[in-house]
Structures
1.
Amino acid sequence: MSREVTSLRAWKRPPILLKDPRWRWTILLGSAIYLVLAISSVDVDWSRVYEGLERGWRFIQGFLTPDFSSRWRDIQIGLIESLTMTLTSTVAGVLISVPIGIGAARNLAPTPVYMICRGIITVSRSFQEIIIAILLVAMFGFGPFAGFLTLTFASIGFLSKLLAEEIEDCDSAQIEAIRATGAGWWQVVNYAVQPQVMPRLIGLSLYRLDINFRESSVIGIVGAGGVGATLNTAIDRYEYDSAGAILIIIIAIVLVVEYSSSYIRRWVQ
Amino acid sequence: MMPVTPTQTWQFRSPKQHLLRWVGWFWLIALTVFCWNLMTENTIWAFVADAPRQASDIGGRMLPPRWGYLNQLWKPLWDTLNIATLGTLIGVIIAIPVAFLAAGNTTPSRHFVRPLALLIIVTSRSINSLIWALLLVAIIGPGLLAGIIAIGLRSVGFIAKLLYEAIEEIDESQVEAIRATGASNVQVIDYAIIPQILPAFCGISVFRWDINIRESTILGLVGAGGLGLQLQSSLSTLAWNQVTVIFLVILATVIVSEWVSARVRQAVL
Amino acid sequence: MVGAADFYYQPWQHIVLELKALSKIYKTGDRALTDISFSVPAGQVVGLIGPSGAGKSTLIRCVNRLVEPTSGSIQLGPTELTRLNGRALRQARRRIGMIFQEYALVERLTVMENVLSGRLGYVTAWRSFLRRYPQADIDQAFGLLDRVGLGEHCNKRADELSGGQRQRVGIARALEQNPELLLADEPTASLDPKTSRQIMRLIQSVCREMNLPAIINIHDVVLAQNFADRIIGLQAGQVVFDGPPSALTHDVLTRIYGAEDWDQVQQNAETQDDDVLSEAQALEQS
């Protein structure tokens, strides 16, 4: 097979993202400078890190040989708080976010209602669970009740936003068809919207259940109940075998929740 | 039970499903009530009733914000950004090989390597970055490094999970076509797989960076540097008017990072 | 007819591909191919026809070992392909160009990168990663793009092209390998009738120019008759016909496709006598 040389043309791959070479170089140089600055601003006490390696090794050992028994009472209390918080806050979150989600759907709600509901969603989504927990603990005192409120609040933003998007994505022909039968607003929601979003709502709720459990294991650090407080104490006391046990339990529960929720989701739809 | 004749079988399924559904709802409600009672066993309702007064008290202390405090926040804000960005970078670097090892179509061994990679992903995902930070502060001492590694470790699971799902969804015919030219495995990854997953990869990384900005604002609560450190000290001195300023800075940062990430994702996809 | 029959009877220089007793049994126990033997001389365009599920796709993929044959031998020039592994297999694959049904271009790469990917078996991974191909490869790629009429599109992304254009890129990619054999898996299945003929004519003419043998797996009997030098009919994994297109009689086609399907195809062809109807569609409908 002879190679036909028609012309000596050079070829270079055209740039993928930024067509203008000046922009490309500016951004490249900018990120390089940023990286240097950022890395140099991290002053590390290497002797401390070196010292920590031994502790890190002890933690890995603790993780591999977890001690469930010596702190079992604390772990048990923390777990019960976490699990009860998770379920109750998810249920409460779903109950509250259904009306807010409907209100935040442009195709169903009048403008003023839409604005209010979107406002609620934005506020709920802007703040970290931990920050909400700090405030609520200050108001309601330590314990799982503040945690319940925190998780409910966070769930509302998450669920309402996704639910509203789901409703807005609904097939408008179905809504029109039901409306054309002379149905009222409630009937439209019941007959045209609900069947379309119900499987998704269940899926989202299960997903949020999963998230809420993970969060419930953290907010205890600021006093809002749950296994996080136990974990915090264990780490503070350098009881790495107990900490390892707690982490293993958390991972196991997350796995169970994730696995069973995907099972339920498949079963629902 | 009523006798079921063949012609009636279909009709009888519906009430049975109905029953199943009601039983499901009943158990959900019963479980929720049970959890609620268990959770609020130790709740001191006097505190809860007192909450509005507490809220107005805190509100009163929070306002007006102490704007002068803002000048002390620039350095922590810079630290927070660095924690998020460098942490995301570490996460990305570790997540890429993990994702390729976890994806069913690129893993070298389905029975040995893949479960291991999935285990890494699950472990990283189940443990909140605040808990990672708690551990790392205990191990290598307080400071930015602990925060960066915490964010990195948490990001690995998130990025690797979404990335390996993207890898599993690629168009296999393109891979086959490149393989048919006599390309080696590395070249197949380079020419057939990377072009297909690159947009998803950029989107996922930027999305995680956005989440990491939120998370890194609070890592300081456990000593991992950034804005959270200021929050911790302001909270412990009950300087609520400084807390307001910190909250506003966090809010602004989150909004800006969300805007940036939305823009970048738009540009990439 | 484009004079295919005349071409068929020319004396052949040498045998390029020889299949002997090739069989494929899938893990599920399905016999996809049974005892396939034939040889393809240089420059011959073979049309592989048969109903869907006859094993056409499997046969083509066995030749470059994208599918592992269970037994039998595949001889490409002096090389026995069935025993190759790793590097040697890749070096054998680069001698076989392949054209795919849904084009199988890497859609997010440029046209040029897609064509140059035909050289992947020749260049080092590092060179291909940096897209620094030898100038000779680049010249050849430009030449091929001009040949298939896409010289202007080299820096477009593959997904910006129409179906016919994409398949032309697919052809250029296969030819960029400087193959000794061309395989085509339903190259026209996702194209409209007119573009299908253009693509088939292009494949036919490059094969003539380069004295390149080709095995084209094709649903469309009329296209196969028009553009192939030789037809091999596959039915349930076995060769049931091997001969010139002119020997494809009604009886033979009935044997390949089964009575009902073939009558269906014919009826449709008669109702649309001018434009060639895609038999693929007709078969799927029946």
2.
Amino acid sequence: MTVTINGKQEIFDKDITLNEFLNNKGINRNTVVIEYNMEILDGDNDLTFKDGDNIEILRIVGGG
Amino acid sequence: MEDKLIIGGKELTSRLFVGTGKYANDNMIPDIIENSGAQVITVAIRRVDLDAKDDNIINHIPKQCQLMPNTSGARTAEEAVRIATLSRAMGCGNWIKIEVISDNKYLLPDNYETIKATEILANKGFVVLPYMSPNLMDARRMRDAGAAAIMPFGAPIGTNKGLTTKELVRILINEIDLPIVVDAGIGKPSEACEAMEMGAAAVLVNTAIASAGDPVLMAKAFGDAVRAGRSAYLSGTGAVSDYAVASSPLTGFLR
């Protein structure tokens, strides 16, 4: 299963949920916003990645 | 004298807006904000680096500040709307600085796409502050599209070149019945002061503070300059004369 995450292709050989992925990467869900196939995910709803999904994980950074 | 700046229904305590980019160390941001007196603070939205431990900039911004996320990275109105929607979902509130740029050399804003984004986002309930190339007709279109303020640049982003667009900004101040916030290019407190003396409602500064030898002290200098410029504007500057006009009495000289 191939999923595009932040523009980069990630290959998974077994099912994985969004929250599992974030936990593996040490990302606190409360500090990011998730766009799942161009739709913003509300709250902390979890979902299982499907082949071909496109996920954006974004956060606030310094800017002018 | 009562002198309020109200944008998007919010009364602001400072006419200096400060950006949070380019600091050598984000830990200095609370001191920057405190010493500048700024209340409106800009931030950006970016992809998380999945392979690095990112610091969270929000931890450095006091809760009482008004966040103003920008749409930097957007090249079209559609992309600006997407970024604005994400920033609101992230809990940044409903203020948005529209920044639509497709010119990588000078980072000049695309007024046409910015007008389109202004209309869409104002209709979605955002408090929209469009960053623009100073142009009267485009500023009118942004106002008519629902902008809460207009933000012309003084010089290209990050150049510290100062108020190179002075005459165009003056026209906007005179003709547009919205707050005019000079954004980008201001390199020195004297230039911020000059913009305020002209009647700008506020200025937005990032690089000039972040790139200073002592950013915290420079933040204070900008805060002082903006207050001085505003007071000068309110007081009304004296007439300019081609010839000397004595300040001391011209009678009673000791001979």
